Amino acid sequence: MPSGKAPLEAVWKALDEAAFGAAQILNLRESLPTAADARFRAEAWLREKQVQGSREVLLITGRGNNSPGGVSPVREAVRSLLAALRRRGVVAEWREHNPGSFAVRPAPISALLAAPKRRNGRADGVNPPVIASLEALEPETIALLRRLAQRSLESLGVRETEKFVAAEMTAKFNSLAGGVTPGVEGEVRLRDAIRSALEDLDG
Question: Full-prediction pTM beyond 0.85?
């Protein structure tokens, strides 16, 4: 058992990891972030988990026992974020797991793609990348994006999809890219997200 850790807290941690899996837990309490930083980190992480197809994840905020009035600013910021992300199609549902954490079920990617855009064009907390051209992407990725755009337009009843497919490809890229961790394998993860979105639409 780690030194300095209350036995009961160690038991709760072990139970949470058994129930959710260590990779499906974000512990904001350990790093003591500000409310704004916690909100930013939680949104980026939840968007990534949505793209990965996670079924349920755990957000640990802490109880706020040492906060003024016993109310945790981080917990309240995350609670507000979860409500916003449900409207944005990122979160399907969430519940209080215990007084210091939330269990969250990410929405399917199709919910993200179908969610209405904010009037100012920005998401809550994380701004998805906006690009003028998709030419930098690999041919396989562009082909998948085109399929997704066409399939999405068809599902909306658009008959002449070619007139709108370029704009729809960019829109779909912007929706999905915010949940893809950048790096060497970033485009591979993007293709996986597009395939998941196609499966959701065809399902």
Answer: no
